[in-house]
Amino acid sequence: MRFGRSSGFSAGFRARAARCCGAFGGGFFFVAHGDVDAIYRSNVVGTRNLLQAIKLAKHRPRAVLLASSANIYGNTDIDCIAESTPPAPANDYAVSKIAMEYVAKLYADDLPLIIVRPFNYTGVGQAPQFLLPKIVGHFARAVHQ
């Protein structure tokens, strides 16, 4: 399934996602660094489409976990960021994540939502400038020297 440059997700995808999430929990993610349109389509429109599909599904999940981002706090000098720290997004990715949170709140009466704000994501194919790939790269170079 390609999520790329669509204007949201197809009805077929939303139905499959709703069946998946409604039956046993599940999810998807898409990080589109550099493509501002894709960032907003995925994080705001895509999340809204997914939540609407889950809401309309026959089976309800026990919980819907949405991954926001600690990026919503912006570039702060605060040593220990609390959830009560006001958002101050400094880029489109962060703005799209706080917008996603507000969209999700529209579904709070209908779905058991849990929103988290992780500080570091990682996964296959993550760009080498991010923290964990950078650490792994340093280790790999040291082993091969």
Low-confidence stretches: 1-9, 18-26
Please indicate the count of domains. Answer: 1
**CATH level-4 homologous superfamily:** NAD(P)-binding Rossmann-like Domain
Percent of residues in beta strands?
Answer: 5-15%
Give the neighbour order of strands across the main sheet. Answer: 1-2
Supply the CATH class. Answer: Alpha Beta
Large-scale geometry? globular
Give the secondary structure arrangement, pairings included.
Blueprint: H1 11-24, H2 36-56, E1 64-67, H3 92-105, E2 113-116, H4 131-143
Parallel strand pairs: 1-2
Characterization of this structure:
With about 140 residues, the protein is mainly alpha-helical. It has one domain: NAD(P)-binding Rossmann-like Domain (Rossmann fold). Helices cover about 45% and strands about 5% of the residues. It contains four helices and two strands; from the N terminus they run H-H-E-H-E-H. Strands 1-2 form a two-stranded parallel sheet. Helix 3 links the parallel strand 1 and strand 2. Helix 2 packs parallel to helix 3. The protein is globular, with a radius of gyration of 17 Å. The N and C termini lie far apart (about 40 Å). The N terminus is likely disordered.
